[in-house]
C-alpha cells in the first residue's frame, strides 16, 4: 500500500502488481499493464526533456565554435595582410624604376598576384567580421559624386587594359548627399566593377546613378558572361561560384549584400542569360534634408 510514485518505482524494480489506498479509503489495484503505460509515459517525458537539453547544448557549442573560428580567421587574416601590403607596395614602387623587360614582367606578376591575394584576404577578413558580428559601419552624410569619381579614377585603367569602355554617368538631378558609410560603399562598387571587368571580354562597363523617389539607384552594367536566370537567386549565397575553376572565394557578392543592407539599402542582380551581360542594382536612401524637411 502506498502512493502512485512508490507503485511505479516498485513496478520498475520488478513487482508484478501493486495496491494503492486512496484517500477515501477505497483500494485500487494497479495491474502491470497500467503501470507499464505510466512508466512509458514518464520515459517519453524524460527522453524529450533530455533531447531538448542536448539540442540547446549542441546549439550553444556550435555558436561558440563559429565565434572562435571567426575570431581566429580575423586575427590570421590581419597578420597575413600586413606583410602582403608590403609586398604589393614595394613591387609597385619597383615597377616605377628602370627595369629590363624580364624584370618588369616578373615584378608585374608579383604585383598582380599579391593584389589578388590581398583581395581574398580582405574577403575572408570581412566575412569573419560579419560571422562574429563585429562589422561596424560609420553612418554619415557624404558626397556621392565625389565617391563615384574616385572609383572611376581607380578602375578606368584596369578596364582600358582589356580594351573595355568604362564610363560613369551621374544624372543631373541625383542629390549629392547620401547617408551611409562612404568607405564601405566604395568597397561594394569597386568589388562589383572589378567583377564586371574580370568577366567581360569585350564591350563596356558602366556605373550609373539616378534618383528613384526617396532613393538613389546605382547600376553597375557590363556586357560580359551574364548569369543563368535559374541561378539568380543563388548569387548572393556564401561561397557561390558559377564554376569551381573561376577565380575568387565566392564571398564577394555575399559581403556586398551584407554591407548594402547595413547601409539601409538593398541590392539585386539582373541578367538576360549567359553571355548577355549583367546588371547589379543598389538602392540607397537619400540623406535627410537639413531642418527636417522631406
Structure commentary:
- Helix content is 51%, strand content 18%.
- By secondary structure, the chain is of the alpha+beta class.
- It has six helices and nine strands.
Brief descriptors of the model:
single chain; 294 residues; alpha+beta; five-stranded mixed beta sheet; two-stranded antiparallel sheet; 9 strands; globular
**Relative strand content:** 15-25%
Form type? globular
**What value does the average pLDDT take?**
80
Q: How does the major sheet shape up? A: 5 strands, mixed
Q: Which structural class should the secondary elements be placed in?
A: alpha+beta
List the helices and strands and how they pair.
Elements: H1 4-12, E1 18-21, E2 27-30, H2 32-95, H3 101-132, E3 140-143, H4 144-161, E4 165-170, E5 177-180, H5 182-198, E6 204-212, E7 215-222, H6 252-262, E8 266-271, E9 278-285
Parallel strand pairs: 4-6
Antiparallel strand pairs: 1-2, 3-5, 6-7, 7-9, 8-9
Structure at a glance:
By secondary structure, this protein is α+β, with helices and mostly antiparallel strands. The protein contains six helices and nine strands.
Amino acid at each position: 500500500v502506498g502512493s502512485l510514485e512508490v507503485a511505479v518505482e516498485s513496478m520498475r524494480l520488478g513487482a508484478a502488481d501493486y495496491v494503492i489506498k486512496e484517500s477515501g479509503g477505497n483500494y485500487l489495484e494497479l495491474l502491470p499493464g497500467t503501470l507499464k503505460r505510466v512508466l512509458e509515459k514518464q520515459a517519453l517525458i524524460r527522453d524529450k526533456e533530455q533531447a531538448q537539453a542536448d539540442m540547446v547544448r549542441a546549439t550553444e557549442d556550435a555558436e561558440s565554435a563559429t565565434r572562435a573560428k571567426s575570431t581566429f580567421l580575423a586575427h590570421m587574416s590581419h597578420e597575413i595582410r600586413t606583410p602582403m601590403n608590403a609586398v604589393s607596395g614595394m613591387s609597385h614602387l619597383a615597377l616605377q624604376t628602370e627595369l629590363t623587360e624580364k624584370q618588369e614582367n616578373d615584378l608585374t606578376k608579383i604585383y598582380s598576384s599579391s593584389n589578388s591575394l590581398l583581395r581574398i584576404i580582405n574577403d575572408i577578413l570581412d566575412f569573419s567580421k560579419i560571422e562574429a558580428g563585429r562589422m561596424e559601419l560609420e553612418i554619415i552624410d557624404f558626397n556621392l559624386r565625389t565617391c563615384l569619381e574616385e572609383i572611376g579614377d581607380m578602375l578606368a585603367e584596369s578596364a582600358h587594359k582589356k580594351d573595355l569602355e568604362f564610363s560613369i554617368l551621374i544624372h543631373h538631378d541625383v542629390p549629392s548627399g547620401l547617408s551611409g558609410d562612404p568607405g564601405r560603399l566604395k568597397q561594394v562598387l569597386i568589388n562589383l566593377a572589378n567583377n564586371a571587368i574580370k568577366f567581360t571580354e569585350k564591350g563596356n562597363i558602366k556605373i550609373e546613378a539616378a534618383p528613384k523617389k526617396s532613393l538613389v539607384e546605382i547600376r553597375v552594367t557590363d556586357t560580359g558572361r551574364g548569369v543563368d536566370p535559374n541561378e539568380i537567386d543563388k548569387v548572393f549565397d556564401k561561397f557561390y561560384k558559377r564554376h569551381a575553376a573561376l577565380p575568387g572565394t565566392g564571398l564577394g557578392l555575399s559581403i556586398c549584400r551584407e554591407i548594402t543592407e547595413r547601409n539601409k539599402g538593398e541590392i539585386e542582380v539582373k541578367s538576360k542569360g549567359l553571355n548577355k551581360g549583367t546588371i547589379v542594382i543598389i538602392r540607397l536612401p537619400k540623406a535627410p534634408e537639413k531642418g527636417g524637411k522631406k
